[in-house]
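Q: What does the assembled structure look like for these inputs?
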Amino acid sequence: MLDRWHGIAAWFDSRLVEQLDTLGPGCPTRLREAIGYSLLAPGKRFRPVLCLMACEAVGGSLDDSLPGAMALEMMHGYSLIHDDLPAMDDDDLRRGRPTCHVRFDEATAILAGDALQPLAFQTLLDSNLSPEVIRESARILARAVGAEGMVGGQMDDLLAEKRDTSVLSVEERTEWLRSIHRRKTGALIQASVELGGVAGGASPQVRQALSEYGRAIGISFQIADDLLDAEGTSEKTGKKTGKDSARGKLTYPAVFGIESSREQARSWINDAIASIQCLGNRNEPLVWLANYILERTH
Amino acid sequence: MLDRWHGIAAWFDSRLVEQLDTLGPGCPTRLREAIGYSLLAPGKRFRPVLCLMACEAVGGSLDDSLPGAMALEMMHGYSLIHDDLPAMDDDDLRRGRPTCHVRFDEATAILAGDALQPLAFQTLLDSNLSPEVIRESARILARAVGAEGMVGGQMDDLLAEKRDTSVLSVEERTEWLRSIHRRKTGALIQASVELGGVAGGASPQVRQALSEYGRAIGISFQIADDLLDAEGTSEKTGKKTGKDSARGKLTYPAVFGIESSREQARSWINDAIASIQCLGNRNEPLVWLANYILERTH
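A:
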């Protein structure tokens, strides 16, 4: 199944290169380079593969969900570029390479992120999907990355660093942590599954099941990320590790400890898998994907 | 007619406040404040009023073009916040008030801009316009603000500051200047007129006429802006003036001189007015608006 993932990711990458090539001469060379540098950097392509596999799981084709998958990766790419900025998380290493503002400069990095957002919408809007699928997909995407989703989560994550969370009760810290992660990372992962479902023509019931699956794997994905940061090495993750605790960030290992965090990740993965029983045998790639997230925590 | 403009702008502002109020509890208070601070700052609301008046000029209602008008102002607001950042134009005064990153901080300003982009699309996508009008409007908007439009123009504008333009011929400098302005300011102004036409159900011929009108007033708007910066005071413009020449920016007055710049602005306005003769009497507000731009240059 890992081979299948890699195969889909490689196919997706070549389609993504073609999509970037459609940018006309009005796009400055430097901007095009910065967008390509960040977007095409080596990566797992977790969100687009999730979208493509979810679409297949409900009977759609990879081509049906390609516009949504590209839009998701563009949104993810923009968020990484902006999150790494000096005024934000101030990271200089990403996917094993200098971050966009280090390789280019801050202004170029801000603009590359700013350009990726409308490019994501454009990719969906220009596609040959039906107007209803386009509208529904774009709505899901806009909400997931907006002030109540990804950007809101990033804002609260930055505020949490400045807040003395030690005065909060365990319940309050847990609620705060979950609320941040649900928006900062979870919303786009959940949207990835939902976009696959919409593109594949899923029924309302199946869409609901996919939505619950997406929510649950989104949370466990973030727990796994926190665990990797606490335990991993930069060789393994391609970015600096141990930074979260150095900055006093609110993370699962910090609030619950390593073992309890692992248990929670497992519990969410079990919930995710239970949610998609209604898909029958077709759910296998999504079950495998959920378990793969869990493996990262060990 | 100025009263009519102010009346529409006041109505628009109250609708915009209502739209921001739809942001749910997932949006952090600080982010909501920064968005409101920038978006609702006193301003002429040139782009939304242009969109609303264009819609009326083709027989549509203000309500038809309200979602597009709000989306345009949100995109304009995001672009101002990001353009003012220290890594970009580094401005601390905007619309007579401290800029967003001065009043809040850089991270909040970046995120407020990042949140306004999907909010603009969401405003269009959630509206009760027909799926075809929504799709077409969102496509026009995405293209206008993207890598080949507004963001591309801003990138080249920043690069122009670092480039020794004195080695270029007059023709090369003129071409470079026009290309930057067409994208940086012109694209969104042109899109404002086009969105009004689409929302009002204009025929392809009328849409083409509006598009030419929008292109021409976009160029003269930028010339007027350059002239204001060269001649105006910050009391009049609400922002620092004389900055362009201090930074060696490529501007119309710098390339052509004050008088020739004024003549070019007039010539574009004449072209704009000629483009919309096909609208008959209904074109009056748009004719007035075009002439109003020209008055700013004196």
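Chain B touches chain A through 53 residues (CB under 8 Å).
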